[in-house]
């Protein structure tokens, strides 16, 4: 891949001043600039159409992709619960990428997706509306149709979790697909750590787990979380989660799902995800220290695989992470900057993180352009 990148970001009360600051930081544009990423906090989401129009006019870049988040990030800094904008502009090989927007399209998707420049599709950056009922199915269908590795996140906002794909997109999924002239090195870090072994659901349907390993689900749950928490199940909310291992993966890959209800009389558990007899399951716990260590591991692994070639990056984190979880302002961005240096990087805190063809929770997904 050829070309350079330039970063602009700012936080404050006046969105026009923020915009002017960001524009000044990205100009003069890198030679051949033809692509941009934009993330804004939800406190100025209503200004996004106007911001996008001005960017297209004042930079000459038509291809903008991005989303709205309750927090956004840039190299070394996180903007949470304040008006903020982050921009990343760069020069990609002409014809190497293609923007798309599937507004409210319901799977199965009947897509014909030739590579932008006639080469093989390799990867994509995508965003989605968490309120779109078929968003997980749409992500999986797009990954299958494009035969590309996807990274991204679902918008998070108090009002409008909009996306950008050349224009403002209000529903469905959208983003950009790259052919194999654009190389991304990616990694994912978990925010929850297993506290018991992988088990097997032996009775259940929809989102209700009745039995695990042939015993009442609640009995197994109490065994795995330990005696102290079992005494007061009111304390498990926001601390203990169900993990659904991903079949066929060669690493500890699991989807974290919230606990919705526990029936102590019947002994069943309800989770925010569909299950069926025979499915594997584990229980996991949010742990700040373990999550911080796993973040460091992931960054080091991505750095090693990038081999010193990283030109820019994008980071997708969960709204359940960030300062509210790690306790330190900017912990994730500071960790990335400490290992990667001042690589231009943008991203946001969303309502779900996308890696490959799935939507995760409480994770961080890093993608580097190399």
Distance between the termini: 7 Å
Give the overall shape, derived from the CA principal axes.
globular
Counting structural domains, the number is: 2
Can you tell me the residue ranges where pLDDT is under 50 for at least 5 consecutive residues?
A: none
Give the oligomeric state of the chains in this entry, treating copies of one chain as homo and distinct chains as hetero: single chain
Classification by helices and strands: alpha+beta
| Rg (C-alpha, Å) | 21 Å
Query: Kindly state the mean pLDDT as a whole number?
Result: 91
- The number of helical elements comes to 8
Strand fraction: 35-45%
Q: For the report, how would you describe the main beta sheet? A: 9 strands, antiparallel
Blueprint of the fold:
Elements (H helix, E strand, L loop, with lengths): L4 E7 L3 H12 L8 E7 L6 H12 L4 E6 L1 E4 L2 E4 L3 E7 L6 E6 L18 E8 L6 H12 L2 E6 L8 E3 L2 E2 L3 E7 L4 E7 L1 E3 L4 E7 L2 E5 L2 E2 H9 L1 H4 L9 E6 L8 E4 L1 E5 L4 E4 L8 E7 L1 H19 L5 E7 L3 H5 L4 H10 L4 E6 L2 E4 L1 E3 L2 E7 L1
Parallel strand pairs: 2-3, 8-9, 23-24
Antiparallel strand pairs: 1-6, 2-6, 3-10, 4-5, 4-24, 7-12, 8-12, 9-25, 10-11, 13-27, 14-22, 15-16, 15-22, 16-17, 16-21, 18-19, 18-22, 20-21, 23-27, 25-26
């Amino acid at each position: 891949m050829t070309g350079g990148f330039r970063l602009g970001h700012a936080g404050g009360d006046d969105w026009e001043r923020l915009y002017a600051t960001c524009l000044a930081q990205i100009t003069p544009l890198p030679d051949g600039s033809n692509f941009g990423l934009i993330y804004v906090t939800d406190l100025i989401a209503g200004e996004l159409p106007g911001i996008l129009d001005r960017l297209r006019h004042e930079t000459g870049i038509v291809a903008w992709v991005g989303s709205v988040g309750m927090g956004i990030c840039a190299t070394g800094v996180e903007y949470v619960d304040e008006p903020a904008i982050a921009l990343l502009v760069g020069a990609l090989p002409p014809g190497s990428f293609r923007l798309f927007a599937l507004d409210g399209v319901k799977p199965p998707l009947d897509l014909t997706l030739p590579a932008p420049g006639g080469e093989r599709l390799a990867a994509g950056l995508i965003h989605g509306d968490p309120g779109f009922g078929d968003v997980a199915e749409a992500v999986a269908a797009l990954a299958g149709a494009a035969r590309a590795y996807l990274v991204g996140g679902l918008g998070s906002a108090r009002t409008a979790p909009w996306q950008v794909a050349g224009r403002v997109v209000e529903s469905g999924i959208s983003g950009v697909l790259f052919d194999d002239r654009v190389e991304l090195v990616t990694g994912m870090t978990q925010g929850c750590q297993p506290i018991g072994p992988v088990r097997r659901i032996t009775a259940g349907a929809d989102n209700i787990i009745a039995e695990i390993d042939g015993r009442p689900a609640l009995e197994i749950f109490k065994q795995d979380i330990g005696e102290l928490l079992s005494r007061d199940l009111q304390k498990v909310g926001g601390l203990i989660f169900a993990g659904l291992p991903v079949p066929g993966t060669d690493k500890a890959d699991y989807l974290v799902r919230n606990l919705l209800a526990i029936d102590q009389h019947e002994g069943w558990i309800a989770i925010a995800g569909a299950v069926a007899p025979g499915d594997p399951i584990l229980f996991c716990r949010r742990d700040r220290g373990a999550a911080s260590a796993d973040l460091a591991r992931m960054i080091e692994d991505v750095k090693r695989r990038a081999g010193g070639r990283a030109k820019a990056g994008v980071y997708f984190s969960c709204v359940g992470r960030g300062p509210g979880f790690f306790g330190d302002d900017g912990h994730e961005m500071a960790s990335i900057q400490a290992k990667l240096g001042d690589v231009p990087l943008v991203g946001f805190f969303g309502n779900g993180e996308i890696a490959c063809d799935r939507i995760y929770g409480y994770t961080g997904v890093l993608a580097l352009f190399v």
